[in-house]
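Record 1 of the preview.
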Amino acid sequence: MGQSLEAAATTAGQVPELTLTGDVARPARLTVPDLLGWPQYESDVSFECATSGVQHHRFTGPLLHDVLMAAGPRFAPARRKDRLRFLIAVSGADGHHALLSWAEIDPDFGQALVLLAVTADGNPLDRAGPQLVLPQDRCGGRHISGINALRVDGGYPRWE
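->
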């Protein structure tokens, strides 16, 4: 699943990496070649871009859910509703950010097939870094290029 944060120093800077941190048992640094180790899914996507109109692309990559499950999210597996308090923050190298709820990607709830794309239109993203792809979104605002950070967060103050 990539490298632990402690072991990543030997490859830092060679290729774009994303750090996977937060409420997970196995934080990691991942590259596009690392993401090729998961089952790959393909999706033809159309979305509206504010600056260049409607875009049509074909992306391939692993499911965000699969990658995050391998990191060991710290929710109680037997308590299905415990997953509902988890958020996923995504950050791109260009400063773009997006926030998803765990329920969006969980097969027991929204089951959105969100990808961490490793190719776009047949072109590898090794040099640019993976891209967040939400095939169900009409607007391309949450399609984050060059992902450099994923953070899983299950903690927030108790609401009264």
